[in-house]
Amino acid sequence: MSNNNDHNCGCASPNLSLPWKEMESKLFALNAASDVIIQDGQSFDFSAVMQLVSMLSSKPSDGLKGFICIVYRSLADAIGSYSKWISTFKENFRPLLLFLAIGISEPLSSNACASALRKVCEDAPVGLEKWHLSLEDEEEVMHAISLVLGSVPNLELKSNLLARLLSSSYEAIGKLVDPEKSLSLKQNPASYTQILNAASRGLH
């Protein structure tokens, strides 16, 4: 993807007049060439891609409209294709998760964003599970995941996925109702708050 428009991406919004069709064409080409680029093993600068992700990780008040939905889909396809490289950098995860969560809510980009979200989570670096989103951001991501789960036709698979999703909340609730563990947690306010938040997510 060309860097000609990089200076626009950091502060623009989807409502501004940008060369969306040109961007989408470049994203489509980048995705189409992913097998060759990855097999070649050469490093690739994804800064332009991530600037576009950051720009689109704030949902417009009136939702996604027009050609921007196609850009969302092509960008999500590119993220999925290069997830192992993009996931190397932890600073990419917040805008990535928010971008994909927004796209999952839109019919035209939902499949591409759901697939990219799965690949990004599979390729996440060790230790990322200890990293926390703000409650507002987490709510956006959890809403997106619930939409994906709701579309799973197999009830047994859906139940298993839901159990995995809520496992951390169940574990947190178990610690809170255990007198010894609860007392120990209360002596560490930061850990106690974290456990309370995790438990509340499972009860929300």
UniProtKB/TrEMBL annotation:
What are the GO cellular component annotations?
cytoplasm
| Entry-linked InterPro entries | ARM-like, Importin_beta-like_NTR
Share an example GO biological-process annotation for this protein.
protein import into nucleus
What PANTHER family does the annotation carry?
A: ARM REPEAT SUPERFAMILY PROTEIN, TRANSPORTIN 3 AND IMPORTIN 13
Its recorded name reads: Uncharacterized protein
Q: Which organism is it from?
A: Trifolium pratense
